[in-house]
Amino acid sequence: MSLIASTILMVRPACFGYNTETAANNVFQSQVAHGSTKEVQKAAVEEFDEFIKTLKKNKIDVIVIQDTPMPVKPDAVFPNNWFSTMPGGKLIVYPMFAINRRIEKRDDLLQQLHHEYKVTDFQDWSEFEAEGFFLEGTGSMIIDHNSKLIFACLSDRTHKSLLDKFAAAHGYRAVSFSATDEKGSPVYHTNVIMHLGESYAVICLDSIKDGAERIGVQQLLIASGHEVIPISFEQVRAYAGNMLQVKNSAGKKITILSKSAYKSLTKEQKEILEIHTDLLPIDISTIETIGGGSVRCMMAEIFLEKK
Length: 307
Known about the structure:
Blueprint: E1 7-12, H1 37-57, E2 61-66, E3 83-86, E4 90-93, H2 107-116, E5 117-118, E6 121-124, H3 137-140, E7 142-144, E8 149-153, H4 160-170, E9 173-177, E10 194-196, E11 200-203, H5 211-223, E12 227-230, H6 233-237, E13 244-247, E14 253-258, H7 259-264, H8 267-276, E15 278-282, H9 285-291, H10 295-298, E16 300-301, E17 305-306
Parallel strand pairs: 1-2, 4-6, 8-9, 11-12, 14-15
Antiparallel strand pairs: 1-16, 3-4, 5-17, 7-8, 10-11, 13-14
């Protein structure tokens, strides 16, 4: 069984914009002068549509769901935080930190997946929101389905007790650690500092300040068959940690990353990556800058079997 999904789901934004609620702990968001709300939304949709076109051109299967204009959901374009699928027919909904992001959870989207795919196990962990415990899907967790490992840096959005509970419920082992940026602020989502391909791992080891934790993570990655490709804080800022490897309909392994992430990589890093995978850069500068998330956050992997 492959760790790589061959179908992804994406949500086309209806009201994309700067989310003040998530800005509290997402240092990547930027309220730069990108024009009016209308102009920002227009630019985001153009980037999204180009993204879809590029995926289709590269024979990558994608399900596009249109975001609803009401209620307004500035971060709807990042569905990987509120739901995920796992091999074995699992469909899971997660507890979200920002109150205004909880409205992104849509029954119609879940129903569509139930209708088109074999869902044998549906789980909703949202009840933990009431207790102030959060675990934001594949933003919080980097899941290695082959080795049954879950890598996660702890933050306001990723609570250890819930992570451990989740891992145990699925028969996985949780590998949690603390990660901070250059200024010492906790990293809000693991998927900005770490990306796992089938045979390689991109990670900002410098963000893991504790020596024992850093060595532990690195050794587990190597032991589970990954070539470790370290990235710098500067590259993290350019979203080089926020990639996703998928398989296209011809069985080719393709790693999707943003143009800014691609540009930040050194020649040597690109050469190492290209031994393992094909690189597909996508221009999403508006979404990245204002949303504080990159291509990985925009894609929810579908590990379910078609009916």
